[in-house]
Specification:
This protein has a domain of 309 residues: Trimethylamine methyltransferase-like (TIM Barrel, Alpha-Beta Barrel), CATH 3.20.20.480. The protein is built from 16 helices and 22 strands. Strands 9-10-11-14-16 form a five-stranded parallel beta sheet. It has a four-stranded mixed beta sheet with strand order 8-7-22-21.
C-alpha cells in the first residue's frame, strides 16, 4: 500500500515550494562539475557556463523531463522471486549503506568493517524476508581501492539473491560492472536491472563530477538511478525546513533533468535525505525532528507533486547502540508510507549511519514487518465487518471458536523478536541478546541460492582484468 493517505502541505504550500525550487534552478542554477554534463545540456534551453561547469535550467525544461520519467521502476533480482517494483502500489524495505563500523553486540566494541563482515551481513539480509532489496551496509576497508567498487558488488551478489543498490563512484567502474550485471542477470541490464545506482548530489546545488559521469553512462545502459540529495540545515542548506526542502528538491530535479536528457525514459527514483547539522560542532545529525519533517515534505513533493517512485526515510538515527533512542528515532517511518513513499531506506544502521550490528539488523527487520502490517489497507466492506459472527456470539461471548477467527488468524502480524506474553518469559535477557541469538541462528542455517559456477568465475575474471588495467594506468 503506497497510495498517499496523508498530506502535510496545503495546495498553496506545495505550489510555493515548487515555484521557489524552479526559481532557484532558473536563476541560480547548479554546478555539474563535468564537461560531459555540459555536452548533454547543450541546445536544450539550459543556460550554460562551460568554464565554471554550471547550468541554469528553465522551468519548461524541468517540466519536459518530468514527463519522460517513468512512474514505476523495476528492481530485478538475480532470483526473480525477489523482484521489486517501485511505484507499483506495494511497499518495500531496503538496508542502509556504506557504514564504516561493525559493533559487537555483546562487548560493545566496534571495528572497521571488512569484506568478511560484508559477506555475513549480506547473508543475513538474504535470510530476512522483510528486506526486499539491499544496499551493501558495510564499506569494506580491507579491499583494494582500485577494485573495491567491483568487489563489494561481487560479494553482495554472491551472498544475497536480492536486488543490489549501491554507489558507483567513477566512470572507470562502469564497463566492468555492466559486464558483471549481465552475467548475474543472464540478460542485458536494461532487461533485467539486477543493480541500481545511488547518485549523491553535493549540497549546496552541486554534483560530484566522476559520480555524475558514471551515472550518465549507467542511465544510458538502463540501470535505475536513485537520486539522493543530502543537504544539512544550517551548513549546506538554509536553516529552515522550507529552505532545506528547496535545496533538496532543486538538486533532485537538476539530476533528473540531466539523466532524462542523457537517456530519455531512464528509470529514476527520488530518495531525498535532508537533515540538519549540530551548529555547536558542525557534525551531521541523522535524526533531528526538523530534518525528519523536511524529509517528509520532500517525500510528499516527490511522490504527490512530481509523481516519482520514491524512497523515504528509515530506521537509523544518532543513537550509539540498538537502544531506546534508536527505537524512538526510527519509530515514525509510517508517516513516510502514508505520504506515499514506495520504499523505506535505512534498515540496519545507527550512530548517524556510521555503524551496524547483527542485532540492529534483526530488530529493524522486526520493525519493518510491523510497519508493513500497519500500512496494509484494511478491507472495509459488509462481509469483512463479520456481522453474522457478531450476531451469533452476541453480548458477553467470545470469538475464539468462530471459523472467521481461524481463517484470518495468519493475517495478524506476529513479531519474531519484539516481546509479547508473560513478563517471566523474558526475565534476565535483553532484547538485543534475543536479536543477536536470532541472527546467529539464521546465519547458521540459511542457505543462499548460489551463483552459477561459470558466472562466479567470470566475475573474478572481470575484476582481475580491471585491476590489471587500473595498475597500468595508475
Amino acid at each position: 500500500m503506497t497510495r498517499p493517505l496523508l498530506h502535510l502541505l496545503s495546495d498553496d504550500e506545495r505550489a510555493t515550494l515548487n515555484e521557489q525550487t524552479l526559481t532557484v534552478l532558473e536563476e541560480v542554477g547548479v554546478a555539474y562539475n563535468t564537461p560531459m554534463a555540459m555536452d548533454v545540456l547543450e541546445g536544450t534551453g539550459a543556460v550554460l557556463d562551460r568554464e565554471r561547469l554550471t547550468a541554469r535550467l528553465p522551468r519548461e525544461l524541468v517540466s519536459r523531463c518530468l514527463e519522460t520519467t517513468p512512474s514505476q521502476v523495476l528492481l530485478a533480482a538475480r532470483d526473480p522471486a525477489h523482484d521489486v517494483w517501485l511505484g507499483g502500489g506495494s511497499l518495500s524495505f531496503t538496508s542502509d549503506g556504506t557504514a564504516t563500523y561493525v559493533v559487537d553486540d555483546e562487548s560493545g566494541e566496534r571495528h572497521e568493517g571488512s569484506a568478511a563482515d560484508l559477506r555475513t551481513i549480506m547473508r543475513l539480509f538474504d535470510a530476512l524476508p522483510d528486506v526486499d532489496y539491499v544496499w551493501p551496509t558495510i564499506s569494506a576497508r580491507d579491499l583494494d581501492p582500485l577494485t573495491a567498487n567491483l568487489e563489494i558488488e561481487a560479494i553482495s551478489f554472491r551472498s544475497c539473491a536480492k536486488h543490489v543498490q549501491d554507489e558507483v563512484r567513477g566512470p572507470e567502474f562502469v564497463a566492468p560492472l555492466l559486464e558483471m550485471f549481465a552475467a548475474v542477470a543472464g540478460a542485458p541490464v536494461a532487461e533485467r536491472p539486477v543493480f541500481s545506482t545511488i547518485n549523491c548530489t553535493v549540497a549546496p546545488l552541486a554534483h560530484d563530477g566522476p559520480m555524475t559521469e558514471a551515472s550518465i553512462a549507467l542511465a544510458r545502459a538502463g540501470v535505475p538511478i536513485a537520486i539522493m540529495p543530502m543537504p544539512l540545515m544550517g551548513t549546506t542548506a538554509p536553516i529552515t525546513v522550507a529552505g532545506v526542502t528547496v535545496i533538496c528538491l532543486a538538486e533532485l530535479l537538476s539530476a533528473l533533468v540531466l539523466f532524462q536528457l542523457a537517456a530519455p525514459g531512464c528509470p529514476l527514483i527520488a530518495s531525498p535525505e535532508p537533515d540538519s547539522a549540530d551548529l555547536r560542532s558542525g557534525l551531521y545529525v541523522c535524526a533531528s525532528p526538523e530534518g525528519k519533517v523536511a524529509t517528509l515534505v520532500c517525500v510528499e513533493m516527490a511522490k504527490q507533486v512530481y509523481g516519482l517512485p520514491t524512497q523515504g526515510g528509515g530506521f537509523d538515527g544518532d543513537a550509539k547502540a540498538p537502544d531506546y533512542q534508536n527505537g524512538i528515532e526510527g519509530g515514525d517511518v509510517l508517516l513516510d508510507v502514508l505520504l506515499g513513499a514506495d520504499s523505506l531506506v535505512g534498515l540496519g544502521c545507527f550512530d548517524g549511519a556510521q555503524a551496524t550490528s547483527l542485532a540492529t539488523i534483526v530488530l529493524h527487520h522486526d520493525a519493518a514487518g510491523m510497519v508493513r502490517a500497519e500500512a496494509r489497507q484494511p478491507s472495509i466492506e459488509a462481509a469483512s465487518c463479520l456481522v453474522d459472527d457478531i450476531r451469533a456470539v452476541g453480548p458477553g461471548g467470545h470469538y475464539l471458536g468462530r471459523r472467521s477467527t481461524r481463517e484470518h488468524a495468519r493475517d495478524v502480524w506476529q513479531p519474531r523478536i519484539m516481546r509479547r506474553g508473560a513478563f517471566e518469559a523474558s526475565r534476565g535477557r535483553t532484547l538485543v541478546q534475543d536479536a543477536l541469538e536470532r541472527a546467529r541462528e539464521l546465519l547458521a542455517t540459511h542457505e543462499v541460492k548460489p551463483l552459477a559456477e561459470d558466472v562466479d568465475r567470470y566475475i573474478d575474471e572481470v575484476i582481475a582484468v580491471h585491476r590489471r588495467l587500473a595498475v597500468r594506468t595508475a
